[in-house]
Sequence to fold (454 residues):
Amino acid sequence: MRSIERTLLRSVMAALLLGTVLVSAAAYFTTLDEINEALDADLKHVAVSLAQYQDANPAGTRGRLSKPIEGPPDMDGAEIATATWNGKGQLVYASEPQSRIPFINGEGLTRVNVGEEKWIVYTARHREGFAQAAQRLDSRQIMARESAARILPPMLLLAMGIGALLIYGLRYGLRPLDLAAREVAGRSVKSLEPIKSEFLPVEIAPMVAAINGLMARLDDSFTVQRQFLSDAAHELRSPITALRLQLQVLERSTDVGAVETARSELRHGIARAQHLVEQLLQFARTGPEAVNKPLVPTDLNEVVREVVGAQALRAEVWQIDLGASLEQPVIAMGESAQLAILLNNLVENAMRYTPSGGVVDVGTEMRDGRPVLFVLDTGPGIPKEERDRVFDRFYRGEQSALSQRAIVGSGLGLAIVRAIADQHHAVVKLLDRIGSPGLEVRVVFPPADHFERG
Ligand SMILES: Nc1ncnc2c1ncn2[C@@H]1O[C@H](COP(=O)(O)OP(=O)(O)O)[C@@H](O)[C@H]1O
Ligand SMILES: [Mg+2]
Fold:
């Protein structure tokens, strides 16, 4: 798993390391340069002093320098050797005769090879000749490097200090994430109150707000589910109670006529309970929380053919003229199994509420760029004041009591239709028929570009 802390730490540490290396290198080389300059100045100082001494004490009056002049006390092995020459280039005096520093006719700093060794020499002119101060390049470089290297340990210490502070700062800065995670982990389905967000940093506030939103929706949906469950149980209770009563009649009655009635009502009751259970199942599969297959281009004519085919036999028994008006393909974004359930509920209603001899017409069309499914019947229609409520779960209208075939209804049919239509971003309209009694139901799907626009 990716960790923000580790990623940040890795890049920050890499930057710190690179910075330390660069800064240390720069500091080291600058210091080295400055030390070299100081040593050059030393060399010049010694040569010039020696020249001034020669001028102040002309030949004959001066004594010999008893020992070599040494550099500053901490310059181990970097002693300065001196020599004086007369105007003709003859050696007058050398502090280290064995090292044979050559005569240089001139003034200033020079590098010379003396045998195997490299020397750096400063030559100063005086009245009677030349004074030289010289140093072995090797030992001077070693010394200069050692001095310059002294600034590295403090740099390293500084870098380590900064690194430690960064690690601490990062841990401290990311702690609210931990706290928020613990808050969420402490939740149960029974405690869906929002996570307190006043003390959260702005970076994770949006995430916490999203989680809070989700929990609020979960809470709502739990409430809806509970309500549905209790409605469903309530609805199931009446047919089951009826069944038990009829069974008792059957068991106790000796009258042949009464037994026959009870048996027929028992059959009816069972049919009703079965219908209800099937509707409940359908409804459970359509809720907004149900996992649905993706919507794909679907020919609504295929759906009509399937549903009308499945209802043809029943239509014949009930003496309903069930027909389909199909033209060219009408394609909507949909899930064909769900659309079949939707249409089946509409067709069933149309056939149940239309008396024998009536006509039920099922079809598709494109209207204003929108695919439409429609079901027309010649039944009593739905009064205007009822048209909103008929979509409620378990709501049954006036017609349901009047129609013999509608007895098995559960009041879930149109609720299922509405739920499936919602999933398809479609609208269900209940309309009066023009120029004839009956109901027209239209399911209007969004235009083709609706899903592209998102
Ligand atoms: N085609 C129709 N003609 C007349 N009334 C209808 C029609 N379809 C539905 N209704 C009315 O709408 C109500 C709700 O329908 P529905 O949800 O399918 O429940 P059910 O059919 O189980 O009663 C019905 O009880 C009925 O009053
Ligand atoms: Mg119905």
User: Anything to note?
Assistant: The chain has three domains: 4-153, 187-284, 292-453.
